[in-house]
Amino acid sequence: MAISKLLQAILVLSLIPVGAYAVTTASQSSHTPASMGLASLSIAADGNATAIGNVDGVDDAGPAELSLPVSIPIGNSPEMRPPDDEMSAASVSISATVIQKNSSAVIAYRVETGSSLTIGETTYDIVNGTGIFNQHSLVVVLHATVQSGDWTGTLILHGHAKQALSAPGTVSVDFDTPQSKLAAKFFLELKGTLTLS
Length: 197
What we know:
Blueprint: H1 2-29, H2 33-36, E1 40-51, E2 87-101, E3 106-111, E4 116-119, E5 122-134, E6 139-148, E7 151-161, E8 169-175, E9 181-182, E10 186-196
C-alpha cells in the first residue's frame, strides 16, 4: 500500500515540471518584439584591428595547427598590445531587428542590411548575422557574414555590456580581443554603445 502511494506521489511530482514548461512556453511564444516594446537594436563601436599573426603567441589557427608550448597572453598584457604601426583603426555600425526577448532577459537579434565593419580604408558589408544580448551575464555576441569585393568572411564580436537595460535605452559595451575578430584577417578590440529602441 505504501509503495503504491509513493509511486502516485512520484507520478504527480514528475508532471509538475512538464506543466510548468508548457505554461512558460505558451507565455513566451506570445511575446513578440512589439508586445515587449522593443523593435530594434543597434551597436556602434570604434577601436583597433590587429592583423592576425602580429600578436605574439596568439593565432587564428585551430588547436591541431598550434605547436606546443604556446604562450597565450591574458587580458591587456603588453603582449596583447603590438606597436601602433601594426594596428589599424576599426569601427562597426550594426542595425538589427529584435526577434525575441524572453522572460530570462535574453534578447536575440538579426542584423539588417546596411550594417558594416570598417578597418583602415576597407569597408566590409555585413550581409547577414544574428546575435544575443544576455542581460543576466551582460554578454553581447554577434556572428555575421561579411563581404568586401569578392572576399567573404566571418565576423565574430564577443563583448560585455556595463549594465542591463530594463527598458529601451543605451548601455556601454566593450568587445575584447582575441575573441572578437574578422576571422583569418584581424583581431578586434572595440568600445562603444548598444541601444535598444
